[in-house]
Specification:
175 residues, SMI1/KNR4-like, globular, Knr4/Smi1-like_sf, Knr4/Smi1-like domain-containing protein, Knr4/Smi1-like_dom
Length: 175
């Protein structure tokens, strides 16, 4: 995992990095979080990568972008899909085997696959199709996922053909 490579490819905004109370965030979620996620959210802040990928933020004033709120909402939605007969190939009981951390402009969800709760830096990324029961794995963490996808080295069938843009960047949300 290399936030440094991501920052070389997609420079973070020229702003002061946020320092968060990660123990409080992790306590609220009931699990530790990957170090690259912490560094990305502190360095980049709230915004969108490549005009398409949104990473949820701890303690966001917007519920649709708040990490804790979205973790709960996604887990509830997946349990409802499972109850309706959709096969969910991951454990949803607490502690869930998957945790959402973002979404794309089309409503597809981004998850960590938490194979080992004690090693969040080894969690890999999953992309969940919003309109079908399909899950697409990526064999690395968040920073590697963003770097590979935004460079066009990794493609997912749920992403549009014109993504990533020729010059992907990061845009901070305007409050």
């Amino acid at each position: 995992m290399s936030v440094k490579r991501l920052a070389q490819a997609i420079p973070p905004p020229n702003r002061e990095s946020e320092v968060r109370d990660w123990r409080g965030v992790e306590s609220e979620l009931g699990r530790r979080l990957p170090d690259d996620y912490k560094e990305i959210t502190e360095r980049y802040g709230p915004g969108v990568f490549g005009d398409f990928l949104h990473i949820y933020q701890p303690d966001s004033p917007w519920p649709q972008l708040d990490l804790a709120q979205q973790v709960e909402d996604e887990l509830t939605a997946l349990k409802e899909l499972a109850a309706a007969g959709e096969e969910i190939p991951y454990k949803l009981d607490r502690p869930a085997e998957i945790v959402t951390f973002g979404r794309d402009e089309n409503g597809d969800s981004l998850f960590w696959h938490c194979r080992d709760m004690e090693s969040p830096n080894n969690w890999t990324v999953l992309v969940k199709d919003a309109r079908a029961p399909d899950w697409f794995p990526f064999g690395g963490g968040l920073s590697d996922f963003l770097t590979a996808v935004l460079a066009g080295r990794t493609r997912f069938p749920v992403f549009p053909a014109d993504f990533p843009p020729i010059r992907p960047g990061f845009a901070t949300y305007v409050i």
